[in-house]
Amino acid sequence: MAAPAQPKWVENLTAELVIPTAEEAWPFLEDYCNLHKFAPDVIDTSHHVEGICNQPGLVRYCAATATRVWDGRLQPKQLWVHEKLIKIDPIKKSLSYEVTENNVGIKTLVGTCSAYPISKESKQGCKLQWSFVADPIPGWEQAEFASFIQAMLTSMAKNIEDTITAKKKKTEDSKTLSSVAKSIEDILTAEKKKTEDPQTLSFIQAMLSSITKNIEDILTAEKKKTEGLKAEDPQPAPVY
Fold first, then answer.
1. DSSP 8-state symbol, 231
2. Which CATH code for domain 9-164?
3. pLDDT tens per residue, range 152-206
4. How many CA atoms lie within 13 A of 112 on its CB side?
5. How confident is residue 224, by pLDDT bands cut at 50, 70 and 90?
6. What's the CA gap between 26 and 104, in Å, rounded?
7. What domain of life (predicted)?
8. What is the pTM of this model?
9. How far, in Å, CA of 185 to CA of 169, rounded?
10. How many CB atoms sit inside 10 A of residue 140's CB?
């Protein structure tokens, strides 16, 4: 007589971001093959395996180290999974995936990650949600596995919050810098109009040129740093 089927594991996990909106957080979730960048405390690495970026059928490889009882003793072990994107909806800011190959013991698991406002009235902040339905995983308790996923989600939320907050601060600093530079330029331009002395004119012109160049250099450097925070295109995966 066959053993009765065990009930599915069903979990709905969340993490809250204080400042970023769902619109600002979504591009990080959408950056499907770079999960390790936004959960570095938990994910060792992640990369593209096959498929087209942000299209169903896209497969990513993720690896994380779990320290727990393995083979009768407490020790670390690197776990890896292939996760195939099965649905993505930028309007609803949601994506779903299924686990295929893995060394965790997962038979079936379908997960959904999404970003949504805390409330209709909220102008800032959002929640990240990571839900999944899975067959029981041999050697794991449901609560333990859910805690592992929650740790990834919490790490993602913190790093997304920090990245977006830093980006906003740099933008505000750049605006302030530009405003101060404009005021100085206006003062020097006004002084330039008041004098006809060649030496004074030459000095003022040199000051204007120097200020303009320094501001341009600073803003260019900040722009490069900001662009470095953007999602990278998935790269071909190494062969295992």
1. P
2. 3.30.530.20
3. 999 999 999 999 888 876 655 556 656 666 666 666 666 666 666 677 667 767 7
4. 15
5. low
6. 28
7. Eukaryota
8. 0.71
9. 24
10. 18
